Amino acid sequence: MLSPCSQIKQEYEALAAQAADFAPIAAAVAAKKADFSEAKKRLKELAAAYDGVLEKVDRYDLTLRRRVFAKLKKEGALSVGKFYEGMAEVTFAGNREAGEIFYYRYVNRAGKIVGEKYEETTPFSCGRAFVRSGGDHRYMIIDKSGSRIGNGSYLSATDFVDGLARVRRYSSLLVSLVDISGERVGDAYAEIGSFCDGLAKVRCAMSDEYKYINKNGQSNEKKFAQASDFFHGHAIVGDCRGCYFIDRDGEPIALQERYQRVSDPSDGMTRVVQNRMYYFLNENLEKIGGPYRFAGKFSCGVAWVNQSGGYYLIDRTGARVCDEQIYSRVTNFFVGYAMAEIDDGWIFVDKKGERVGKECLPVSLNFDSSGFAHLVVGDKFFYFHASGRRVGGKAFGTGLGFSEGRCFVNDSSRPADSDYAWYVIDEMGKRINNERHESIVTCDSFNNGVAKIKYENDEVVYIERNGKRIFEQ
After folding, report:
1. pLDDT band at residue 384 under the 50/70/90 scheme
2. Is 250 exposed, middle or buried (0-12, 13-18, 19+ CB in 10 A)?
3. Cα(103)–Cα(468) distance, rounded to whole angstroms?
């Protein structure tokens, strides 16, 4: 298998070859000896390939965003967002005397401003974005040239996915789908879920029942009191007699198999309760393991179950992972690790149920999706990774949560009469650089490679993951 660097090098060489092939086409167009539309098509393909390589080299577009910001700073730009489909949202300083604090515009990769001034913007998807302007609380659709698409106006909207977006019209409480031309697709409903396996769950306004629609807005009109999203060709529905599975046509799968409770699929396994006992179903709805007095959801290929007074781990075949490891209380797995209670407190365990690390804590921790959690002891603030590693091996005064591998913290050793001095650490607790941020009013976590800091003097600074300033106003 190629290393990431070798793969990027190969992609770059292929891109350079495409660029060389494009040169004679461009020359022929300039000499009016070739079709301009064909050249535009090839140029678009070349730009898309370039963006693909750039995304791998510079995940957050920081190099490009810094360059574009330098060009727009004299016009009052405060920051440049991540590029989506070649377009980025730019925040500008507004006319404060007129009550305008900020306004937003779009910029392309060449640094050219596109469209009007907007009060609110969304990232581009499927070549479209939703914007608000002119003091109107309604959203409208624009394309990459800034031109309005359709005549619709909306109270709320989601990003386009596969050419469809969910919108709520200003004069209605119902939700409907629109395509990239702004045309409504299908009927309006009280609720429309995301598409899974090509079908979306919708809640009917009049009956408060659920049914399923395809991406054309069509439905077979079969309705259910309860419903879930589709997963591997089936979905969970329910009525007063319990829950059961249906296929894509809405027909029951083994109607005699009814369950008191069915959880959403997790790690490819579905947890069900039947006759007050827990079981797991695989993707083919075959029972795996059980019955259990209690079972947690599958995560990282394993699940906690309780069959005779203690918790132990099983794998996706239902086999017991380790016969010796049994605990009285446990937590869910995060990034391959969980916590379990022993006589002395809570310890960290791996997917075999075996202890990792030496930490033993008085309480269990609530880990975020990146596998980090904090513990407050008096005026001390500790960070832990789910593997049992204490971040930095020391206490902090306080801190924000980890985001994109970075976290803002401040010292626990500060004098009582001094302000907190914030700085950035990585996932190992190592300080990123020597800059300390004092007299902070607000401090945001990292998003798309950039964090925003506002000081008491109203100075606003945006820093990148290495702690260096990238935008400032």
Report:
1. very high
2. middle
3. 25
